[in-house]
Amino acid sequence: MSRPLDLIACPTCDLLQQARVLAAHERANCPRCGQLLRKGSRDSLQANLALAITVMILLAVANLFPIMSLEIEGQHRTTTVIEGVVALWDGDRIETAILVLAVTIVIPLLRALAVVAVTIPLMLNHSPARFAKLLRFVTNMTPWGMTEVYLIGALVAFIKLGDLASVEPGPALFAFGALSVISALSTSHLDAAAIWSDQ
Question: Is residue 151 predicted with pLDDT exceeding 70?
Fold first, then answer.
């Protein structure tokens, strides 16, 4: 049963309305514009934690293993994301290097760590320190984790380099593909309003 002050605002049209606890199969949409506001989820904290840990594992694979291997005139070369960032930095493309590092590694990792830092204390019935700041950080950083953009760029590079060299995808490319899917699932599953109401 909702408390009198459990209010939420629609992020699209700003309609203020009363929130209530949802069953696992229920969804709450804005009556004015139809925007999805909240959705019920069984074991949502466990799912948020599992998705965040999966993101961290995939980030490790995506950055420790080669993203591609090239063979040109008998010379074989493999490259990782970090090596690509270093090459951009050494080539005086410092802004691009920082951007690639941020959106493919730093921001997704920090977001996943923040989700873990929020979720584990709540599962143990404790309110984490700086709860509001952590939750706000997770929400604000979500649009900046653009691993899917990097993945598209890598696929374009494969197509372009295919005419010049023998190119083979590495384990990191598949990890980035899985990371894009898991990140999207994590974003769609994370209900900041529901987590806030649970703490």
Answer: no
Q: Is 18 left (phi over 0), alpha (psi -120 to 50) or beta?
A: beta
Is the CB of residue 128 less than 8 Å from the CB of residue 113? no
Q: Which residues contact 174 (CB under 8 A, 6 or more apart)?
A: none
Q: Supply 180's token pair.
A: 């894009």
Q: What average pLDDT score do residues 35-60 get?
A: 81
Residue 57 pLDDT level (bands cut at 50, 70, 90)? very high
Classified as helix, coil or strand, 39 is: strand
| C-alpha 164 chain-centroid distance | 34
Quick one: pLDDT at residue 173? 82
Quote the CA–CA distance of 13 and 48 in Å, as a whole number. 27
User: What is the pLDDT at residue 54?
Assistant: 93
Q: What is the mean pLDDT of residues 161-171?
A: 71
- For 197, how many CA atoms within 13 A lie in the half-sphere containing its CB? 19
Question: Distance of CA 104 to CAs 8, 108, 187, Å?
Answer: 32, 7, 16
Mean pLDDT of 42-62: 84
Contacts for 175 with CB less than 8 Å, ≥ 6 apart = 58, 61, 62, 65
- Which strand ranges, in their side-by-side order, compose the sheet holding 166-169? 75-79, 68-72, 166-169
